[in-house]
Amino acid sequence: MKISVIGTGYVGLVTGTCLAETGNEVLCIDIDESKVKLMQQGKVPIYEPHLDVLFERNIKANRLRFSTNLEDGLNHGDIIFLALPTPDGGDGSADLSYVLETSKQIGKLIKSYKVIVDKSTVPVGTAERVKEVITAETNIEHDVVSNPEFLREGFAVDDFLKPERIVIGSSSERATNLMKKLYKPFVRSGNPIIVMDEKSAELTKYAANAFLATKITFMNEIANFCELVGADVDKVRAGVGSDSRIGKRFLFPGIGYGGSCFPKDVKALHKSGKDLGFNFNLLDAVIKVNELQRKILIPRIDNFFNQQLKDKTIAVWGLSFKPETDDIREAPALYMIDELLSKGVKLRVFDPEAMDNVKLKYGNKLYYATNMYDAVNNVDALIISTEWSIFRTPNFSKLKENMNQTVIFDGRNLYDIDDMINEGFYYSSIGRNIVQ
Ligand code: UDX
């Protein structure tokens, strides 16, 4: 099939590349000329495991091409994916200006039947609005379909190629059949393609993300309570997660959820309720708890140093919002960095992939370490904010040699309490007893 993807952010790029992998001819459109040039040279503009291999292979086979010309995109594809940004509009709601402006252009340029697919996470009713905007410009037949993505950064290629489910919101049989044909190779394992109306599909995406964010937040509160009563959250998690109704995944406590999806989507769902006079009381609490959780280590660090943080030197391991990505959007590390900088702390930071993005944001306010051990040179404490594998088994002797004070604040519970007792560190983690 011929496919066009408008927007080559992480969703658009993964979608386009993976659809080319099953033999489709894909044309990706982006307004950013320098990015398009880069991609035409075969370079992937983001870090996403396995994407580079597929990218190269499909460009070579001429199944994956890039352009800045929206008209070419519209002429090329039978199916046109919209993978455009829907940022926070400032009041928590999703800003639809990119989606609606592009829809208007589509209305002006469309020459034959097309299926327009909303891939971005958009509020309930957006497919209807997109349809209205296009129809206001043209009489040419078209269908608008909602097809939310459930890709995890770091696993996006795998999630796309082997999805647990495909959700298609469509009220047109013609469009539904085309979408089913497109996705057939990805669900050979028997995983379902679930067809529903557009609004239910749009809400499915928000409900899934809000549920997962709630699950994490619930565990974070249980962890905080564990500390108060002297229980160990790792043990509670194992006990709770063994109930198949609850499940083991997404129960890991930490310093709050981050990233480009959960914080934005939970707020957008909450706001769209509010706009209709409906109060999502549960999400209200989730948002509040997460805001507190991402800074939960700060008062502990402050107390440890008797409120004398000025001119202390602290290392931060992990800057991306989670491992296997260079994405720093809504990363808990950044909230802590801001807070610590405001208290006059000198910071030495290290991340395996996100250093360039952090440099762009903080310039010379931070020391950018060449490796994880360089980061801890002469520091008074180490904060762990992302659970990259490389941080899981450090050389503790080397840490002790390098650090001024052997103090670790671990926001991701990477180490066993017993090991830290044996190694002789002061060790404060989430939902477990402090080792001192
Ligand atoms: C998420 C959804 O999983 C995906 O389906 C959706 O399409 C986009 O949003 P992503 O943002 O890539 O994907 O990250 P995810 O792996 O889901 O983690 C989100 C946040 O939750 C991270 O900050 C992570 O550190 C945190 N998290 C996750 C926890 O704190 N504990 C957990 O047990 C799991």
UniProtKB/TrEMBL annotation:
Annotated pathway: Nucleotide-sugar biosynthesis; UDP-alpha-D-glucuronate biosynthesis; UDP-alpha-D-glucuronate from UDP-alpha-D-glucose: step 1/1
Catalytic reactions on record: UDP-alpha-D-glucose + 2 NAD(+) + H2O = UDP-alpha-D-glucuronate + 2 NADH + 3 H(+)
Residue stretches making up the UDP-glucose/GDP-mannose dehydrogenase C-terminal domain: 315-417
Keywords: NAD, Oxidoreductase
Keyword field contains Glycoprotein: no
EC number: 1.1.1.22
Keyword NAD set for record: yes
Gene3D superfamilies cross-referenced by the UniProt entry: Cytochrome c1, transmembrane anchor, C-terminal (1.20.5.100), NAD(P)-binding Rossmann-like Domain (3.40.50.720)
Family: Belongs to the UDP-glucose/GDP-mannose dehydrogenase family.
Protein name: UDP-glucose 6-dehydrogenase
